[in-house]
Amino acid sequence: MKKVIIVDDSIAVARQLEKIINSCDDFNVVAQGRNGAEAIKLYHQENPDIVCMDMNMPVMDGLSALRSLCMTWPDVNVVMITSLGGVGDKYSEAIKLGARDVIGKPFEAESVIKTLQKIA
Hints:
Blueprint: E1 2-7, H1 11-22, E2 27-33, H2 36-46, E3 50-54, H3 62-72, E4 78-83, H4 87-97, E5 101-105, H5 109-119
Parallel strand pairs: 1-2, 1-3, 3-4, 4-5
C-alpha cells in the first residue's frame, strides 16, 4: 500500500480527497498538512510515496514547497491540486518545477485514483 500525504488549507477539501484516496486499496493517507511548510516537515517525517498538495495556501504556497521538496528529494512524487480557474499557467509552472501531475477541483474520484496509480 502506498503512503500519501495531503496538504491543503481547506479542511473540507482535505477530507474529501482523503475519502477518495482511502477508498482505493492501493493507497493510505498517513498525514495531512495545512501549508507548504508543513508539507516539507511531513515529507521528512513520513517519507510518503505521494504528496497531494494545493497550490494556493497561506504561510508557504504549494509551488514554493514543491520547489523545495524537489531540490531536497529529487525523486519526490507530488501531485498539485488547483481550482479549475487557475489550471493553465500554473499547470505548466508546476510541471516545470517537478510535479508529476495536476488535479483540478472539484475532484472526480476516478480521475484522482487514476492519476495516483499512474505515478505510484
